[in-house]
Amino acid sequence: MDTLEIGTAAADSTPRPQSGPASYAMLINGEWVGASDGGTRTITDPGNGDVLATVPEATAEDVDRAVAAARKAFDEGTWKADDNAQNRAKLLLALAASIRENAARLAELDTRNNGKPLAEAEADVSDSAACFEYYAGLATKVMGETVPVPMNMLSMVVREPVGVAAQIIPWNYPLMMAAWKLAPALAAGCTVVLKPSELTPLSALELGRLITSLDFPPGVVNIVTGAGEVAGAALSAHPDVDKIAFTGGTDTGSLIMQAAARNIKRVTLELGGKNPVVVFADADLTNAAEWVAFAAFANQGEVCSAGSRLLVERSVHDEFVGRVADIARSIKLGHGLAADVRMGPLVSAEHREKVESYIEIGKAEGATLLTGGKRPEGETFAQGNFVEPTIFTDVTPDMKIAREEIFGPVLAVIPFDTEEEAVRLANDTEYGLAAGVFTRDISRGHRVIRQIRAGITWINNYHPTFNELPWGGYKKSGIGRELGKYGIDAYLETKQINVYLDEAPLGWYVS
Ligand code: NAD
């Protein structure tokens, strides 16, 4: 497989790859292969429109082959064995080291493919390596228990890998989502078919290259590339897949859950959010303003946990929103590889159109466009999918921009008067992924955060994420948890074993 030869980040505003487009293959049963019908897809840089690579467009037949390879590696191989746990741990650590050795290249690739600023991609790569290190540690700590029961019985509970896991991921954190999925599954002893987003498959394929340079048995990790409606749907419905782990939109999650129901696959879903950030008048408004801007605009706002609904106590509303708007206006936009850029382009032209349509809806609904709302002007931005950081005030809770996930740099601000109202507004959503509260009153901060129905929460900060802690949502934001010790549980079955220690006969039929 050719790889993209990318050099160090150029300082100009529209960096270009130093060699032409690369031609990638998919990883099936330890081999790099093209699609069975020869189909390919072109991958472009959303910051300047450059063609980066072509990748295979998997067919349902390719998915069959990948699942068969994973099935064979699971059923007939030694990967899952208890006495292979140390080996799994060693391989995951070696993979983490390899990611760190290739960190600059991987970060640059994610920036070129997704658009995010290089500093964010570098943090993603470091977190990805740390995720493999964390689960390398857990691979040897999957433990059972013995349980006292009636009868002269030695009763044990053991944990066993769930089997073949299909893993479908989105485009907003291409490498990190792959790491979050692969690391716990492999630590548990599962075999995997991973499908990256059709928009951003490159760093996952490079990760596959690092995997094949280590001693992972063939078929343990398979990576298929292509459309959700074809490859993703084939994986979701496949009878030989035991578990499906999905991160993406809530509507897609619902389709996957329905397909998975046919053979009662285990399902974990990490879906969308419309996450509230509550700012009380007593908060440190200077610090809160920067966190709130970070909550809304980090990664171009293309974050499931983005703080996209700002609830501000009315007495400080104008002052506080003014501070956030000043920060928004100061954010440097540009190609993610250009110096000092803090916001890159949106991932695709189609996605920018979707975000822009919400901006139009916000105006039509009667919200006030405080800042942003348009494409930045100038040569630097001409070929990329840029949108300015955008803030709407005078938003009411029934407006679409207050209810629907926009998944872009658009912040909707709603004022409140009392703590009870803040909690009610925060929970007035079908989602329940993340939430933040800012106040100097730690009792109130704790009281409010406990009343908000969301799985990932922060007090006096927003967005820091740790491999050690569970990630996932309430309500329509998903089912199950990734990361932490909870993340490996999602790839384990639980079995009871009862050993009869008595020599006395059963005495039920035979007296
Ligand atoms: P998406 O749902 O369109 O696609 C996600 C993945 O699903 C892609 O790999 C896609 O090819 C695949 N897919 C699409 N249709 C499918 C189908 N019918 N069957 C099987 N697979 C299919 O989402 P996206 O646009 O890539 O990502 C944005 C969404 O992801 C947002 O809603 C965001 O909130 C969510 N997200 C959630 C988390 C989380 O941890 N909760 C993290 C990141 C992103």
Walk me through the topology.
Elements: E1 22-23, E2 26-28, E3 31-33, E4 40-44, E5 51-56, H1 60-76, H2 85-101, H3 103-114, H4 118-139, E6 145-147, E7 153-161, E8 164-168, H5 174-188, E9 191-195, H6 202-212, E10 221-223, H7 228-237, E11 243-247, H8 250-261, E12 266-270, E13 276-279, H9 285-297, E14 309-313, H10 317-330, H11 349-365, E15 368-371, E16 390-393, H12 400-403, E17 410-416, H13 419-426, E18 431-432, E19 434-438, H14 442-451, E20 456-459, E21 474-475, E22 478-479, H15 484-489, E23 492-500
The structure holds nicotinamide-adenine-dinucleotide.
Major β-sheet annotation: 7 strands, mixed
Compute the number of strand runs.
23
Spatially, the strands of the biggest sheet line up as 15-16-17-14-13-19-20
> What structural class do the secondary elements suggest?
alpha/beta
Helical proportion, percent range? 25-40%
What distance separates the N and C termini? Answer: 70 Å
What would the principal axes of the Cα set say about the shape? globular
Portion in beta strands: 15-25%
Number of helices: 15
List the ions, cofactors and other small molecules found in this model: nicotinamide-adenine-dinucleotide
Low-confidence stretches: 1-16
What is the alpha-carbon Rg in Å? 24 Å
Mean pLDDT: 96
What does this structure look like?
The protein is an alpha/beta fold and 511 residues long. It has 15 helices and 23 strands. It has helices at residues 60-76, 85-101, 103-114, 118-139, 174-188, 202-212, 228-237, 250-261, 285-297, 317-330, 349-365, 400-403, 419-426, 442-451, 484-489; strands at residues 22-23, 26-28, 31-33, 40-44, 51-56, 145-147, 153-161, 164-168, 191-195, 221-223, 243-247, 266-270, 276-279, 309-313, 368-371, 390-393, 410-416, 431-432, 434-438, 456-459, 474-475, 478-479, 492-500. The strands form six sheets. It has a seven-stranded mixed β-sheet with strand order 15-16-17-14-13-19-20, sandwiched between helices. The radius of gyration is 24 Å and the shape is globular. The N and C termini lie far apart (70 Å). Mean pLDDT is 96; it is low at 1-16. Nicotinamide-adenine-dinucleotide is lined by residues 168-172, 195, 197-198, 228-229, 232-233, 236, 247-249, 252, 255-256, 270-273, 304, 405, 407, 433, 473, 478.
